[in-house]
Each structure stands twice: as structure tokens, then as C-alpha cells.
Amino acid sequence: MTKKSLFNRNLAARCSGFVERCAATLPVLMLLGCLLALLPQGASARLAGPPEGWAPGETTRDLAAVRASGQLRVLVNQSRNSSGEVRGEPIGIEYRRLRAFEQYLNRNARDGREVRLKLIPLPKEQLLPALLRGEGDLVAPGELLPVRRGMAVRASTPILRDVPLVVVARQGNRRYQRLEQLAGRSLALPAGSAARDALLKVNAGLKTPIVADWQDPSLAVEDVLELVHAGILPMTAVELPIAERWAKVLPKLRIERHLQLTDQGDMSWFVQRAAPNLRASVDRFLRGYRAPADQDAAFLRVYRRLYKVHYPLGRLERQRLERVRPVLMQHARAQSLDWLLLAALAFKESTLNPAARGAGGATGLLQVTPAAARNVGVGNAASLDGNVQAGAKYLAMIRRRYFASAQFNERERMAFVLAAYNLGPQRVQRLRAEARRRGLNPNQWFFQVERLAAERFGMGVVSYVSSVNKYHLAFARERYRLEP
Length: 484
Description:
- This protein is α/β, with parallel strands linked by helices and 484 residues long.
- 48% of the residues lie in helices and 14% in strands.
- The strands form 5 sheets. It has a 3-stranded parallel β-sheet. A 3-stranded antiparallel β-sheet has the order 10-7-11, with helices on both faces. Strands 2-3 form a two-stranded antiparallel ribbon.
- Helix 16 (425-437) crosses helix 17 (445-457) and helix 17 (445-457) runs antiparallel to helix 18.
- The N and C termini lie far apart (77 Å).
């Protein structure tokens, strides 16, 4: 046998062995892949936005670079509790503090050049990664914000020290004396909640864990508290100062001060490690800052009179929903809508009362005006069938004409449709154009375009979309019981 033929035979034998080993291993790899696919994803995995890269950006701006640019880019928690503003009045807890810091920087400018703040709202869990990518100079979360090991960031001097994370429930619900009694029960948590790590430590000492019920990304901490207040969610865990603030406008909340997940966290601002001068300036400011006595005046004035969601799944409400369910399902199916979205809209508009009458000639389950009904080819909006048909066709028309683009995810698409249903499509389109000019995401209603709606029109349309969204989520949690 020649050397060449011997080499070929050995090569063939090795290749055959490799193929056999791959064939034997392939089923195991496929099984592992399937198991990994079944693992649950955290709430942050559902959020739209850039990946959480931790590596520092190419440009880290310290105080001198900030002054030279004339702009301090502040990454703020997008929740209304942290950074909201309504018609020029601040309702977010960080808003006044940040404006005071802006004044502080300008009082201490040696060259007379003023610095202006640019607020960049982001989901809470994206704040520190965005800071490290160089997309901002300062992070002001307004909540506890855990720093993961290895992140090149520095916390400021604490705004509040040793902030307790407490359980919050609804008055009238069962009382618990010890955390151990919550074993096997669930805590509703907004995406990015600092309770994640604290709950892991608590659960390490329990035989049956307390369940973290992560909520939809469209819900911030204030939304979860409102759902607990309505009885839609059983309990949550939030920072004590936030619970105390919202209990002033949500009076049915009960703060369980004795049920603390932890009291080890400080509320702070954050800068990159490579910006020591900016951090020093922040620290000097925070050490001398005192919040004004009327800091929450606008917040209280806005939210005390604002619509608050109710429990939509009581006995009477279920009976009403059952009576109108066939017509809701029929017309939702015809327009490729979720019938529970129509149910949520009907609960907000009329509390599921087909005989309801509103302002401007609006009538029925979905409060449709005769003009709107004629616009979609429905003659009798006073009947239950005509009213639901007209409302469903009008929603579908708005979606088709204005929000059909693949740039929207379905949650945001329907939020824009609801905003246009309430405010008018052209106004919503103008808000989106303004959002684009101001560096906000024009394809995201929640916490982005809604900020401009609150500035321009007040909280009416913001509350409207938020309420329908909450009712939709509440119904969706019970879908298997509500559908035949």
C-alpha cells in the first residue's frame, strides 16, 4: 500500500470517528438547547432599548468638558414619580433637585459660561449602562439603584441613607406580622425594582420563596402602587419614601413598615469613575441642598384630582362583562383586535354600561359620537351592536392610517391608537414629531411621547391611556376565566 493511500485511509477513519461522536452528542446538545429556551426571562429582557453594555464609552466627560459644551446630560428614570412634569410644573422628585444643581453649577462658573440640563429619560435598568456608554454625564434615578460588581461608576454622597424597602398592600387585605408569612405569595414588582436582590437574600432563608411577580414594562412604580390601591394586585415592595409620597394621593394603600426586605440601600446620583471633578461638584451640592417645603405641591394638586383605576373584576363588573362579551368578541375579531382591549376601553368609558351617556353626544359602551360612527360607515351608534362595531372600526382605522408601521411593537402601537382615540390622530402625530426633535423615542408612547403630552395638554390623555392599559392588563391576567 502506498503512503498516499495509507494516509487517505487513516484520514477517512478519523473523519468517520468524528462524525460518529458528533452524531452521538447532537441529541444531548439539542436537549440542552430546548431546556435553555424554556428558562424564564427577567422583566428587563422584555424591554425595548440598547443592550446593557457595561464597558465605558470612548468619551467620558468630566466637569471641564461639561462646562465647555454648555450642557449637562442627565439620565433620568423615566417614571413620572422620578422625573415627571405637567404643564411646566414638576411632579417628579428629582426635578427640583436637578434644577437646583443647574443653578449651583452656574453660580460657581468661573468663566461665566452657563450650563443647561438635558434630561434623557430611560428605563431604570438602562440608566447605568447608558452612562457607561457615554450617553450621559449623570444618573438621577429617584429610586434605589443597585450597582453591579465591575461597573466603573461612582455613587454620590447619599441623598437618603439606609432606605427601607417595605411591603405595601391595600387596606382591608390580610395583615402579615413577619416576612416569613409571605412565603409562597407574590409581590408585584415593576421592571428594574431594587427589590430583586433583597428578595433573593430573603428567600435564601425560606423553604418556600416569596414570588417576584414582574409587571409589564409599561408600568412604573407609581402604576404598580395604583394597581395595588385598586385591589388588582395584592402587594408590592417599594422604597419607604416613595410609598409615603404616594399614600398621600392613594389613601387606600397600607404601608407595612414592619415588613422590610432590606434597609441597607442609599439613594444617590451616579457618575462615571473617570469623572472625579463632576462627582466632587455633585457631592458639594448635595451636602448643602435642602428640599423646599412645597416640593410636592404640584404633585399633590395634580394627582389628588386625577382619575384612578378601580377594581374591574368584582361580581357586578363580571356580570356586566359577561352580558356584552359576545358582541365585544365579534367585533374585535372582525377588526383583528384583542377583545379584552375593547373590554378595557369600555370599562374606562362607561364602566361596561351600554346605556351610558357622556358629553358631546357620546353614547353607549364605548362612548361613540354619531359623527365618529358615520365616519366608519355605522348608522346607529346608539344600539349595543352598532356602538361596539363603530368603536372597533374607528380604532382599526386609526391603527391602519397612522400606526401601521413595523417600527412599533404591539403594546406601543395600541397605546398610540388609544391616545389618538382620546386626543385626535393629528395631535398625536404632532407630539411624535416634537419627540423626534427633542431626542425622545417617537415610537414609544409610555414614558416618552406621553411626557410631551403631559407638558402640552396636562395629564388627561396620559391618564386615559394608562388607565385603559391597566384595565387591559388586569383582564388579561384573568383571560382563561373570562373567555368561554
